[in-house]
Amino acid sequence: MHKKAFLPPLEKLIEELLPRINHWATKYAYLGQPVLSKEDLVSAGILGLIEAYHRYDPSKKVAFRTYAEYRIKGAILDEIRKIDIVPRSIRDKISELEDKIKDLYLRLGRLPTEEEIIETLGISTEDYHRLLENIKGISFIDISSLKQKIPELEEEDIFQYIGTTSDKDDPYEKVLLKELTEKLEEALELLTEKERLVLALYYYEDLNMKEIAKVLGYTEGRISQIHQQALLKLRTYFKIEEEKPKNSGKRR
User: Fewer Cβ within 10 Å of end Cβ, the chain: N or C?
Assistant: First the structure.
């Protein structure tokens, strides 16, 4: 039987999944601004759904909606990755921030607080918050290189694997994800309670910045800053771990 026999008409699927597409477009819109609008991301999501419709293979025993949602979210995030949102000057600032956090971590034996980072940078709180707003396109790992090893993986999928057993068939992918999630679990324990809460609401509860701000009683901008600071700390921790000799064992 032709695979299309398993599916409703494409137009009906678009109508059914449009609320989900709008949800993800809203959630990730802040990453693409000012270059991409929410409408641009909705268009990318619809194209992802169309691609899913034509590529879907019912013999894989995966529900179409599950497969389609995966492709939709991936299409939206790929659209954002196509543009270079962060200019070179900001990338230099990111590197400087990571170096400062690394120095503080090695000196303090823990990830630093916001106040300690600001003091080390020698800038005002306002300037630091502005800098965090400017680096909103960063991720906590180099997701592009990781996707070469696990093509279908997205950053927030890694959070979903914490505390679970990977269902990947490829033994190499299972090991890679196990190592990655173990490091992520360790790093999350070093964040502040507020940072962990923002990440949990964003990645686990699938809330956008505006919704998180409403839950926690902060402005949307402040939630974005906390989110970026948490990712920055995770990036630094991962880099420190990568620089350790392979036989050095885990930090106690």
Answer: C
